[in-house]
Amino acid sequence: MKISLKWLHDYVDVTEFFQKPEELAEALTRAGLEVEEITNRAKDFNNVVVGHILEKDKHPNADKLSLCRVSTGDVVHQIVCGAQNHKAGDRVIVALPGAVLPGNFAIRKSAVRGVDSAGMLCSLKELGLAKESEGIAILPTDAPIGKPYAEYAGYDDITFELKVTPNRADCLSHFGLAREVACLFGKELKAPKAELKTSSDSTKSAIGLEVKAFDLCPRYTGRYIKNVKVGPSPEWLKHRLESVGLNSINNIVDVTNYVMMELGQPLHAFDAAFIAGNKVIVDRAVNGEKFITLDGTEKTLTGEELTIRDVQHPACLAGVVGGKNSGVSDSTTTIFLEAAYFLPMSARKTSRLHGIDTDSAYRFSRGVDPDGTLRGLNRATALILEVAGGEAYGDHHDFYPNPVKKSPVSISIQTVTDRLGYQAEEHKFVDFMKRLGCQIEKTGETYKILPPTFRFDLEQDMDLVEEYARLNGYEFIPESLPVLKNMPSHHDKAFMLNRSTSELLRAEGYQQAFNFAFVGSKGEKPFLGPMEALKAAGLASSEKEIRIMNPLNEEMDVMRSTLSYGLFKNLNTNFHYGNMNGRLFEIGASFAVKEDGGYGESSRLGMAVWGRTQNLWNKSLDFPVVYELKGTVEALLKSLNISAYTWVTPANKAEVPAFLHQGQYAQLLVEGKKVGFIGTLHPVLLDDNKIRVPAALAEFDLELLYKGQPRPYRISSVSKFPVVERDFAFVMPKTLKVGDVLKDIRKAAGGLLLNVDVFDLYEGEKMEPGKKSVAIRLWLQDKNGTLQENQINETTTKVLESLKKNFDLSVR
């Protein structure tokens, strides 16, 4: 939120901070109101002053240029000008040497067509104050010669960009911040005045009011004003709004925006001529009805929104945005001015549901002072009468059947002392509470503090302790180490396993991703396809989504069912940002609806691989990246001492997730139980997203993967007896899985087999169609003695017989 220092000065004396705004920024930041940026606009107009043209002559060497003698007070400057709309005697804007205009255009002494020129006569466009200009700016005849233009035009302001935390909605206005500054520095606070004159006519007779949804609108005020003249706002009002980043629209709308930025009370001015039936109704929307916002966007309402309506249709989404026919136009002559207190939950829900973010919604969502509603209405009425004329009716509406009341908080000075660790001073505590607007009553050693209605965050004694610490200064809290009386608790088993898994994957070249647990249903559901495939892989999922009741936006409206969708989005974003290869993993929770209707949460490991790391040694390699991913998974299984695992390719294509390649997909079985999947991303999916490198995903249920951990390691001494190698080449069908062959060899070879592996594969022209030659090496060892020839022959014979029997394989 932007705050103008000149505007703030209207309510609290901040004179000393115009020369040293950093000190005020530091004090506010220490008090919990972080100042993110300080902008001194006067610096943009350094060396830009008001000048007086004494003489205007033709340039001796150019017909289209003029030569002017311009006074800036004590000095007369010779300036060459190309514009033709000025004359001797005019007051103009002069940029002197040293000025830097928008576009980094530096003004220097120079020669123009052989004549010296010591400055420039400026148009508003050249100063960045207008989009178009027909010539240099001509100022009023009373403009003071030599005065800095920023000071003359009101641009000598300093603005703060504040980061206001959600609990400090009371500081979302200039008066609210002035209240905070007055409290911090012990200064006097000056409230804005509202000198209001009303006629004897009755607002209640002109416009009726019915508040049906009083549970969402505890207070509603309104006043009828006739004979207003809609037009441009006066300069002071425009400057005030522009200083905080708001555009001027017309005098009526500008006043409502001004009061919102001044007091923190949003308002809305209705064109009374368009209020059907001359009656305002505060009620919930009708499910399915249409609503067109001020900017022409059509919204379909759900029936949960609070609306301000007439007898025919909704005119406003309460506290969020006005309707197309509710706004003030140039033809408006009568208005109904509204100021209300809507429950924060109602405005926040409507704003997020329809994706409408306005200054009004921002304030109502965090909380507006219910006791300031009428004050805001009267202040805005007085300003409208000042800038737009008109006649304000008396007998205003003020629906407030159940005034909001705060409960008193009991606290003692000793409580403050005990919590802060240093002696709290009673007179300071009382002074702070008074300056915060609290009512104080003391009984014995106990104070009863009644917070004001604008401080929603003061509800218990610890809130008051925090206020004392904040206002007195956090630097006074002494540093001390806590006393450790008990032994530290043991680390959570799942945490330790996750940490070791993370360390291994990072060592494998993967980077850890952290994604939101919320995703968009419009994106995740089409990506995942039918959930049966995930269930078949051992990942508990449900077709029914867990929807967020109050989502931040439509991209975060459901709880995620898997990690795969988030990792795919990471992959897609990284690739299109120029990362042509990458390795990511994520450890996090997925969510599903249980069969009994409850909600389930499971811990998952997701992995994503795309592209290949090219270098001098591997640039000729060409293999699916899913194999690289498979190698990493097997390294993880080995680190967990899991040996009883296998990869299974389902025969039923319906068990393959829609986002994966049906021919490059496998499910992982650990000790006979499916724990997840691995696979190459579907080519159509890659093509649709313009991902031009191979990519693969994997996802596993960590609870199933970690089951039985820690698994004990069997340690044995290294055998001193030699290892014997035997190589065999087998011709087999291409459809036969080599893994099944190796599994059979291990079973047949028995205890003498140390290891078995493939060391060659041939599928050349000399092989029969549909065949491949696979060379397999066996390592044999007897740990109790040197292998004898008969032992070797007996083992290899068993292996060959088993392969012949089970796969009809013979040695090549």
Automatic annotation (TrEMBL):
It catalyses: tRNA(Phe) + L-phenylalanine + ATP = L-phenylalanyl-tRNA(Phe) + AMP + diphosphate + H(+). It is found in: Cytoplasm. InterPro entries: aa-tRNA-synth_II/BPL/LPL (IPR045864), B3/B4_tRNA-bd (IPR005146), DNA-bd_dom_put_sf (IPR009061), Fdx_antiC-bd (IPR005121), Fdx_antiC-bd_sf (IPR036690), NA-bd_OB-fold (IPR012340), Phe-tRNA-ligase_IIc_bsu (IPR045060), Phe-tRNA-ligase_IIc_bsu_bact (IPR004532). It comes from the Bacteria. Its cofactor is Mg(2+). Residues 719-812 form the FDX-ACB domain. Mg(2+) binds at residues 457, 463, 466-467. Gene3D superfamilies: 3.30.56.10, Bira Bifunctional Protein, Domain 2, Ferrodoxin-fold anticodon-binding domain, Nucleic acid-binding proteins, Phenylalanyl-trna Synthetase, Chain B, domain 3. Its EC number is 6.1.1.20. GO terms for molecular function: phenylalanine-tRNA ligase activity. The keyword ATP-binding applies. Residues 42-150 form the TRNA-binding domain. Residues 404-479 form the B5 domain. Keywords: Aminoacyl-tRNA synthetase, ATP-binding, Cytoplasm, Ligase, Magnesium, Metal-binding, Nucleotide-binding, Protein biosynthesis, RNA-binding, tRNA-binding. Binds 2 magnesium ions per tetramer. PANTHER family: PHENYLALANINE--TRNA LIGASE BETA SUBUNIT, PHENYLALANYL-TRNA SYNTHETASE BETA CHAIN AND LEUCINE-RICH REPEAT-CONTAINING PROTEIN 47. Tetramer of two alpha and two beta subunits. Belongs to the phenylalanyl-tRNA synthetase beta subunit family. Type 1 subfamily. This is Phenylalanine--tRNA ligase beta subunit. It comes from Bdellovibrio reynosensis. The lineage of its organism: Bacteria, Pseudomonadati, Bdellovibrionota, Bdellovibrionia, Bdellovibrionales. The gene is pheT.
